[in-house]
Design brief:
Elements: E1 2-5, E2 20-23, E3 26-32, H1 47-64, E4 72-79, H2 85-93, E5 103-108, E6 118-125
Parallel strand pairs: 4-5
Antiparallel strand pairs: 1-2, 2-3, 3-6, 4-6
């Protein structure tokens, strides 16, 4: 059995998927890009601002499911330029305590949806 999680406080899906799916006590959150859910505009030009918007979108979805970043057990970060890793990591790291940070991988890719510079997905346990 699965429960679909969608919130107006994160960008609406741009394809045939949902923001998140809860099955049992595991929450699978679709990749979030730096799109402002209020305006539908992309945040561009500053990788820190882009990463922060992606993380805020994830936070809104977690909250809609009754969770926080403390519930996150796995994160995947996709970037267009690995040279931006330190700046992305700085912003991402501000959302977690070192002791409770999830497992994670960061992968450089050729392109991302809407040609953004960063996309982050997560798995959480409630």
């Amino acid at each position: 059995m699965k429960k679909i999680i969608n919130t107006p406080h994160a960008p609406a899906p741009i394809g045939p998927y949902n923001q998140a799916v809860l099955t049992g006590n595991t929450l699978y959150i679709s990749g979030q890009i730096p799109m402002d859910p209020k305006t539908g505009n992309l945040i561009e030009g500053d990788i820190k601002a882009e990463t922060q918007q992606s993380m805020e979108n994830l936070k809104a979805i977690l909250e809609a499911a009754g969770a926080t970043f403390l519930n996150v057990v796995k994160a995947s970060i996709f970037v267009k330029d690995m040279h931006q890793f330190a700046a992305i990591n700085e912003v991402y790291g501000a959302y977690f305590d070192t002791d409770s940070a999830p497992a994670r991988e960061t992968v450089e890719v050729a392109n991302l949806p809407k040609f953004v510079n960063v996309e982050i997905s997560m798995i959480a346990v409630l």
